[in-house]
Amino acid sequence: MTDMLRLDGVSAGYGEAMVLRGLNLAMPRGSIVALLGKNGMGKTTLLKAAMGFLPKAEGRVVIDGHDVTREPAHRIARGAVSYTPQEQALFADLGIRDNLRLGLANDAALNERMADIVDLFPFLKGRDAQRAGTLSGGEQKMLLIARALLSRPALMLVDEITEGLQPSVIERVGIALRRERERHGTTMLLVEQNVGFALAVADRYAVLKRGAIVIEGAAGDAGAAEAIRAQLRV
Amino acid sequence: MTEPLVIATPPRSGAPLRLPGRALGLFGASIAVALVAPWLLDTYTLNILIRAMFFAMLALTVDVLWGYTGYLTFGQSAFFGAGAYAAGLVFTHLGFDPGHVWLAAGLAVLAAAAIAGLTGWLSFYSGSTPLYASVISLVLPIVMTQLLFSGGTFTGSSSGLTGYTMPDLSLEAWFRIAAGALVLLTAASWLVVRSDGGRLLAAIRDNEMRCAYLGIDTALLKIALLVVTAAIAGAAGFGYASFSGVVAPELAGFVFGTEVIIWVALGGRGTLIGPVIGALLIEWASAYLSGSLPFVWKLFVGIAFVLVIVLLPQGLLPPLLRVFGRAKRADLPALTVTLTEAPLAAHGTDATQPVIELRGVAKHFGSHQVLSGIDFVAHRGELVSLIGPNGAGKTTLMRCMSDGAERSAGTVRIAGHDIRHAPAHACVGFGLGRKFQTATIFETLTVAECLRMARVRIAAPSWWRRSTMLALPPYALEVLRATELDHKLDVQARHLSHGEQQALELAMVLALEPQVVLLDEPTAGLTLEERSRIGRVLVDLAGRFGLCLLLVEHDLDFVREISSRIVVLHQGKLALEGTVQEVVDSELVKTIYAGSGHD
Amino acid sequence: MNLLLDVLTTSAILYIVSAGLLLIFGVMKIVNFAHGAFLTVGAYASLVSARLGLPPVAGFAMALLVGAVVGMAIEWLVVRPLYARPLDAILATWGLAIVLGQLITLAFGREVQFVPSPVDGTFAFAGGEYSAYRLLLVGAAVVLGTVLALLLTRTRIGLVTRAVIMNEQLARGLGIHAGLVRFFTFAAGAGIGSLAGALITPLSSVDPNMGVPWLVNAFMLVMVSGVSMASLLVATLVFGAAQVLLSTFVSPILGGLAIAVLAAVTLRIRPKGFARD
Fold this sequence. Notes:
The structure holds 3 protein chains of 3 kinds. Chain A is built from 8 helices and 10 strands. Chain A is α/β, with parallel strands linked by helices. In chain A, the strands form 2 sheets. Chain A has a 6-stranded mixed beta sheet with strand order 6-7-8-3-9-10, with helices on both faces. A 4-stranded antiparallel beta sheet of chain A has the order 2-1-4-5, with helices on one face. In chain A, helix 5 (137-150) packs parallel to helix 6 (167-184). Helix content of chain B is 53%, strand content 12%. Chain B has 23 helices and 14 strands. Helices cover 75% and strands 3% of the residues of chain C. Chain C has a two-stranded antiparallel sheet. Chain C starts with a helix and ends in an 8-residue tail after the last helix. The B-C interface holds B 72, 122, 127, 129-132, 134-136, 138-139, 142-143, 146-147, 149-150, 254-255, 258, 261-262, 265, 295-296, 298-299, 301-303, 305-306, 309-310, 313, 366 and C 78, 81-82, 85-88, 90-92, 94-96, 98-99, 101-103, 105-106, 212, 216, 219-220, 223, 251, 253-254, 256-257, 260-261, 264, 267-268, 271, 277.
């Protein structure tokens, strides 16, 4: 069975500065992997490179068996990949419903799937026209998850979804993600700073340091949390 | 630490102007052609060429403004027209005599300069965008032509002024005057743009923000440049009007202004000679072809223009020269520069006075409060690291420290000076240096030229010479030596590696002889080796040379190794401050920053 | 009363002429200096249609179509390669304006020509009389504005376009082919510009250089409106009124300058112009 996402020796960066150097990552279908690391270590760069926003100086990106190294972002997104950026992830001036619509390729499936989504995040009910920019931080993040799940992606790339959220909301997000994986076998790569959330939701973890993966393992391992914290320590 | 780099050669001022033989040869040949041509060409051609040469002078000014300084202007024609009308008006209404010639010439230059001063003041100010400056340059000729239209019989309205008495010179004499003036002007422009001062134009074009943070008042410089080029354009207009005997409002108009742009683009922007040849050739061809195939010719020029912009943005001259075997860059040939050590000025502040002081600094965007109640002080020799999670306001704080217009409240003092609302270049003047996260240097300038730009505030450059000496403070020399950039002085900055570019920027900032240096994530994108090296350099700068360094950093290992003090920013407030030990072990940092604490 | 109608009709005309330019600027963030040429193309399309004896509506339709097709060609060949060089895009589109102008001159000659007005005469209005066609143009502006607004806010294509205007990178990440959006937007902007040209010809005349004065005014109005159609409405009303008032009470020359000068001053004071934050 082929991996859902594979990065083979990928180097990428901004201009002359290489942030990722020869990075290797393999994610089997239906797995949830948490990518941890301190700021500036390359987590967002990895997602952007995989998503086709950054040119790769070296290496290959393979999604579901297709080499997408030279593909533009919109084509990768159309291939059932959903990307939730860390910043500027919503259209603040558009309404909630419009933001959700843009998560789908066309409007046909929207109504049918809306019911599911509202089930998961009840706060969305009846607030179709409210401008996304007026939602609270937590609600915005939940809207992002809703939008990502709406398209039933095969692969989800999520950048620091729990940043700035209260513990109760974080728990809801974790439940929603695991449920989605159970139902549809979605593969998920979660970039995180929150070690607890990462280990609770993911199957495996990997820590990124200066553009390469330094440690990885199963989230269930006894010493996982300690090992990760050692890498992230001040 | 190893010995500082010292070169024993004393600096020589007043070094003779060295010119490459090729340039002198070209100059001589052009003068010869100017003198001889009138005997070889027929009257019609002479007539056309004389007009074309006045236009070519205008094209030169556009090239200096657009090709070298990056200011796309549609309005140089307005100054040309102003000069032309000065001549036309004086000769029409006051009659003709030698005194009036001088009057008209003076009026032409002064009027153009005055209009340019006003235009420059409108276009170039702290925070203006290149698009806005171009917009103003478009509005100017429109306003000019309309004013000329509305002048009734005084300005001749839409027909302009004709039939006034002109200086009585033969066609051949006019040719020699115009050609001589054109050659001299081209030569002078060439001297200026290749001089040390001329590199400032390229620096502004490449990275205006960096210029501001090197203490250069770019707005003032651009206004001055516009005034000078306008005066020249006005003089050219005066010459044109004195020769042709006709002035029309179209000379000051938008369409003519865009024609000049076309000549410069086709000839080759930033090459000086290209626009001159472009103007001459196109005008000459137009005169001949306009009779037989008027619209096809213009169509051809239009198509050529579009093709050049899309496919050959440097213009037609550089590729042509390459075809003829001259490996000529549009850039200048390398000049060997020798580094010397500059004596450090004694600092007014002693160790007890703070070099930077913030009291009650706050910043809000609309209703969103980014920073509040920041009280902070730092002294000479300190190495303070500013840490905090994303969105805590670190970069905003740096901006408030380096630009008086940024903050919403509070006071900032640099070396005892209250910065009030002073723009960035003034803050640099008070003793502040700022190094950005992405290497902010001048791409097309060499390492030596970049460093010289950094010394502009302290050592004003010559506007016609290229100096072979460059004096830098010892700590800047150390950075160059440690990264071996002192062996790459004539390499263009864009060809340096990322780590080298970062080092160059640091050396440039140090060349300002600042008292306090702000560094934004200095280790971003560096290899492990480069990181250790810069750590040693920073510690040395603070310890040996007494600079005050403020770093924003995410790499906490790095921060731990080198800082004398750490400040933690959280949600726009200073949450904690202390020694490395105190901060690193604190609960606060562990919970808010290190990313754990959720189980 | 006549003064008020002058202001309304002038604003309407300015709106029709500027709408296409704003659409392109909003989505693609470049200034299409060929806009004046599109006006001219549309005017000549309606001239051809009139010569063929077709009804005026056909003239407008032809203008729209021809403009859109020419726009597509230009976007593909010239604008797309200049995506990263916006100032050069201004120059290249100006070059295209010259090329189009010369092609039209070669095909039709330089003389001023006339297109008959679809609606002749005047309209009795509140005690006075006013040019019927001018009043119709107010209606046309309202229709155009409404259609654009509906397209942008009620259709999926409009939503996708607005997404690209607001945040192109985010739109791409959601699977939107921004390149296609830009292509069709340019075609639409060109088509609307040509339609505008056809609409204004009955007011004066048709000649190869008619587009230039309109270009400058449209450009300044767009600069001051940012990316918002609503701001454009406000700008055309305010500056249109200024132009009419100055022309009537001070001098036509000053009136002609009003828009350009006022826009430049507005931008100096408030770089966002009339757009909301």
